[in-house]
Amino acid sequence: MTLFKLNPLAAACAAALSLSAGQALALTAFEAPDVDIYLSGASAPQNLLGEIAKKMFVGTEGTDYFVYYDNGGTPALGTTSDDGKSYRAYYGVVKNDPSIKTSLHGKKVLLVNRAKGGSVWGVNPVARAEAIATMKIDAASCVLDAGKYRCPQVGNDLAVDANNRIPDFGVSDVEPNMFKGPLNVEFGATQLDPEQATVFAGTQFGANSLMMGIVATNAVPDTLPISHAEYGAMLSGLIGDWSQVADGSTTGAVAVCRRVQGSGTQASYNWFFNNFPCAKDGLHGTSASTEPARMVDSAGYNGAHAGTAADPILIDPSAGYTVVENPSSGNVRDCLARAQSGTDHQFTGDDGKVYRVQFSKASATKAIGVLSLDSLGSENGWSFRALDGAGKLTGIGTFVCSNANQLECGIAPVKANHREGRYDFAVELSFQYRNTTVNAVPALGGLKKDVADEFVELIGDPTVLNTLAAGPKEATIALPINYDPTLDTNVAKATHYGNTCAPLQKSF
């Protein structure tokens, strides 16, 4: 794939010259596509899928091209359907647009995207050509609901299953080398060995930079300054009560709504707060790393249950320090909302077992979370806070700090700081696909490779990023390794150059 520098005028002209206006359509929701491609990994691209579909496909959603969501499968209390947290798919006819690869013009493309389990699912099974669970899309299985088709999750990640499917390419919040054991690999799996890791040489691409966030429920006063060290200590179980933070004026047990192992979001927190795997026993660096706490470290963990929907494993936050390992960012948001409202949180873990966190026993739990800032705009009883300080975001790009000591207001998580490199808790989205045959599965090629390359270019294009909804738009910025920050304000001025463990460096 050839990455390119931005020329805003040329991009505008290409859009204006689109040949798709009179392009004939012959597409129904479940006919056979010309290209059926499976993308697995991080949830971050979910915010961009709809925008890329608009740019690539002829016509309008629901009429000319189609969107498919998974139909649930995670027994969230109080809900009857899922919102595509685990799987989404887009199917349409590619425009005859000069800005899109000519080989794809007029082709019927179905892109199936899996976000279940997080980033490592865009690394390990891609490199190993392993078949994993997916979403089944056909007329007999899917149901039209509120303008979108809802389709079943099928297959079994933990076993051989005829419904499983090998991902064609993957996406991760951080580069593949960050997914090292024991903290950053999925349940029941091991890290890639050196030979397996070589299958991404020349076919791994940085796409964009995404801010990660300091998150707390509203029960935590926004006047309370939280330092980098204190937040990391709470994630690691070294601080179990809020009385140990700052001046001790805030009390109550700490709860952590984190992601599962193998999540890129979790890996980014492990890097930033725990120095893993950048310590001496990891990839780079010389200092030691610490280990984030797990659900079994919760004071109120009760594993004497079957782990089924009828008999879930229980975690009682009223007993003290609590950790909840959520399989998706949507589940983290639910966890935070339920911690604040005092209602139970039920979900299926990466081990296939069902857990219930009994927030109803605690009431307005003071919880922190593990989320990227593309969750901006979905806050419900929680907010993004300053890095190394007090204050919070009260709207898109609106930071308020009412702390009496303004010197303790920290660094605001806003795009201006992200662009300048002042807010350095950000990760660089990575796409990758196989460059050689693995397990009799050939390297990605032909139209599938063209779709993957087109997708990577679009998802890192600052003009596409500018079309995002307000929250994701604020959180995401193009990389200077692909575009020139002097030509577009939606390009970062600094980058890790594809090595998260390396210092953030100015690009010019």
Report the end-to-end length measured between terminal Cα atoms: 24 Å
Structural class: alpha+beta
Q: Which term fits the overall shape?
A: globular
Helical coverage, percent range: 10-25%
Classify the beta-strand content into a percent band.
15-25%
Rg over CA atoms: 22 Å
What is the number of independent domains?
Answer: 2
Which sheet architecture does the biggest sheet show? 14 strands, mixed
Integer average pLDDT: 89
Low-confidence stretches: 1-21, 73-82, 282-286
Number of E-type strands: 24
Number of helices: 11
Summarize this, please?
This protein has 508 residues and is of the alpha+beta class. The chain has helices at residues 8-16, 46-56, 124-128, 194-197, 228-235, 264-274, 329-341, 415-420, 446-459, 462-465, 470-475; strands spanning 35-41, 66-70, 87-93, 108-114, 134-135, 143-145, 148-151, 153-154, 169-172, 204-217, 254-259, 301-302, 313-315, 322-326, 345-348, 354-357, 366-372, 382-385, 392-395, 398-400, 426-432, 476-478, 494-495, 505-506. It folds into 2 domains: 8-210 and 429-501, no CATH class; 211-420, no CATH class.
Structure, explained:
With 508 residues, the chain is α+β, with helices and mostly antiparallel strands. It folds into two domains: 8-210 and 429-501, no CATH class; 211-420, no CATH class. Helix content is 18%, strand content 22%. It contains eleven helices and 24 strands. It has helices spanning 8-16, 46-56, 124-128, 194-197, 228-235, 264-274, 329-341, 415-420, 446-459, 462-465, 470-475, and strands spanning 35-41, 66-70, 87-93, 108-114, 134-135, 143-145, 148-151, 153-154, 169-172, 204-217, 254-259, 301-302, 313-315, 322-326, 345-348, 354-357, 366-372, 382-385, 392-395, 398-400, 426-432, 476-478, 494-495, 505-506. The strands form five sheets. Strands 1, 2, 3, 4, 6, 7, 9, 10, 11, 14, 17, 18, 21 and 22 form a 14-stranded mixed β-sheet that branches. Strands 12-13-16-15 form a four-stranded mixed β-sheet. It has a two-stranded antiparallel ribbon with strand order 5-8. It starts with 7 loop residues before the first helix and ends with a strand. The model is unreliable at 1-21, 73-82 and 282-286 (pLDDT under 50).
